Hints:
The complex is a heterodimer of chains A (360) and B (429). Chain A is built from eight helices and 18 strands. By secondary structure, chain A is of the alpha+beta class. Chain A has three domains: 138 residues, Probable tRNA modification gtpase trme, domain 1 (Gyrase A, domain 2, 2-Layer Sandwich); 80 residues, Aminomethyltransferase beta-barrel domains (Alpha-Beta Plaits), CATH 3.30.70; 68 residues, Aminomethyltransferase beta-barrel domains (Elongation Factor Tu (Ef-tu), domain 3), CATH 2.40.30.110. The longest helix of chain A is centred in the middle third of the chain and has 12 residues. Chain B is of the alpha/beta class. Chain B folds into three domains: 199 residues, FAD/NAD(P)-binding domain (3-Layer(bba) Sandwich); 92 residues, Orthogonal Bundle (Guanine Nucleotide Dissociation Inhibitor, domain 1); 89 residues, 2-Layer Sandwich (Guanine Nucleotide Dissociation Inhibitor, domain 2). In chain B, the strands form four sheets. In chain B, strands 1, 2, 9, 10, 11, 12 and 18 form a seven-stranded mixed β-sheet that branches. In chain B, strands 5-4-14-15-16-13-17 form a seven-stranded mixed β-sheet, sandwiched between helices. Chain B has a two-stranded antiparallel ribbon with strand order 3-8. Chains A and B meet through α3 and α4 of A and α11 of B.
Amino acid sequence: MSLQVRATPFHGPAAAASRLNLWEPREGWTVAAVYEDAAQEALAARLTVAMADISWRWRVAVDGARAEEFLARLLTRDPASLAPGEAFKALWLSDGGALRGAGLLARNGRDSFMLVSACADPLWIARAAALFDVKVHEIAEAEGMLAVVGPYAARLLAAAGLDPDLAQLRFRKLFWRGIEVTLSRFGEHEGFEIACSATDAPLVWDRLAKVGRAYALEPAGMRAMDILDMEAGVPRPGRDYRPARGGFDSMPAPEDIGLGSLVDPDHVGFNGRSARAGLPASRVRMGIVFDSDVPAANAVIAEGGRTLSSVYSPALRSAIALAMLEPRLGTPNTQVRLADGTPGLVTALPFLPPPVPLPR
Amino acid sequence: MSAPADAIVIGAGIGGIAAAACLERKGVHVVLLEAAEAGSGVREFWPVLEALDPALVKTLKLSRRGFKFIQRDLPTLALRQDGRHLLLPRDPHKAARAIVACSPADARAYERRQAEIFALARRLRPWWWETAEAPAGLPERYKAASAQALLAALFESDAVRTTLGFDVPEPFAPGSALALLWRAGQEMCGLQGARALPQGGVPALADAMMASIRELGVSFRSKARVRQVLVAGDEAAGVVLDSGEKIFSRAVVSCLSRRDTLLRLLPTASAGIAQTLRLLSSAPRRSETVAVLTLNGEPGLGGRSSGGAVRHVIAEGEPALEGVASDAPSPGQHRFIVKAKGTPTADAIVAQLERFAPQFRSRVLDIALTTRTLCPPKLLASAQERIATPIRNLFLCGRDAEPVDALSGRAGRLAAEMVSAALQRKARP
Lengths: 360, 429
């Protein structure tokens, strides 16, 4: 039996660093699931610094004279508010108001953007873009992307020769000792991302790994990053909800997933806006900390609601879950119980603050 | 920039004039815009009316404005190559007597079928004629069956099947049996299922309706082609003319097809990305051609009924067509108007007629053709689905908003009701 491996540009150095040779598919790519110990890797991101291959994220370049007009139609926030070098998070909806995608839009120039998402929606985006004569092309094949997360992230980058002075949701292209990279701060963990050409990827990894020894840099696999995502309270497509794929679907609404804040009420004319019922969500997204080590994904909550995804949090030393609860349960410190009797405590999100980098 | 209106109607076709008139009667200030140089936008040469909205005729008092019929109940004469033509009057008993020559069993079945279908069609009128929520009491078999299959199950004679199925768009398509019901439900001059010939043809209808809107005080502008519908957020807010002039309004009603309205008049993808992609991939498939033939003698197709003119139908061979004699253009001349399915050439039409009227070609002095694409039937769509659009306060009122592409005006009347209701909702705090 042969296994299909779709290697990211960092596959080689990641494989060399992996003690367990454990991989998993992520959006069609093969990425390291764990290097040695997922809990240890997640704690490294929280206490020192960790480096993760996030090249699997769907990234498309959107270019054309009507690119801004197209993206204003597509997204729940107006790209006119972005200057070159700036980014924001937004959603895109079906005609029926259902959540198709959540991602980040970065502006390169007047007519040039990049859209990044944890879940690809290529046909919809490409066909919609064609209506505006806008070109869309995927860049994940040609570019690798690393995340550098943790209190020592800024110091590591500075030591490597990269100026980490960059605000959240900003990015800049620069030459780093002869190679072109893009340094950004897009993620929920207040870390950094470094994007580079596929050819330069092994060199970028090596440079960071070499400098990172002084900061106890650890490579982090997907399981560790999922723990961080969960602790940040961010719902992920596929894991916590199924994105709509029908052009006229009406479910799930952004509010059903707790992503209503990414819809700008002042932005008119985005796709699906007229179909939105404007009704308040019937459930609220909260966190639950269990009195147990055992994760409980997709579990019924006896008092009303359901958990979404769930992991063991090494930082909290408990299993945690994202949950959609009836509004009356949405107060922190409310006691709840799973159907099997496992007790839990409702908490506001995020479970933990992000590991903010120490100043250099 | 012009003074704002309560509502703008784009296109002075029958549906547009109907919408404008009905709105003005409700106290909604209307501006009716027509791209043509002068007069209405009605360019219909086929003179037979079968689906004109009786409520519209009554509401606009068209008979008092000179609109009259020269024949209220036009029978159908199906011409057969073997000479055994089939004359079908509207009266089911008389029609059954004519069918006996084809098949006695079919004659019996016809009377039963007419009674059943006519009763069912009357029950479905609120669905097609008004804004009912759902078609009440519609047997499931009609939703799925093709007209061809239904007629084949009811009748054994090919002559009867093809004649009765002639008026069904896409007779082999699933659900096309509904078109038989729709046709049976129409009413002209108080007669269910009738076809009528207006004096002066459809232009006379248009003139009477234009007189109505003038009397009502509708602002009418010709040579006013709309380039774009203005959209504020997800709501229609007026129009921009080709001249660049903007006219603001609280609602817009378009006589154009859904495809043309949403793709050509709106900003890109304003109707929705999926909706736009769907419209782009669903180009109209069917066409019809109207040929106005000027002859130096009678058409020679025979079969003139005791009641006056007949509608000749030829379903054998290509092109399938129907024809009716019309007002003579000048002494010694005759006019015969043909409506053919598809886009046949003039020569093909004449050749088809000559199969049933020898030397027909030698009688032709002139022939003028117009072709148009037909809107697909929407027999299972509610009025809301046919007339409303994804843009708030933008409605459709033309042929594309009717259950079957037919000259009716009903969609205009219903669009006016929807606009009026929408404006009242807007006015409420």
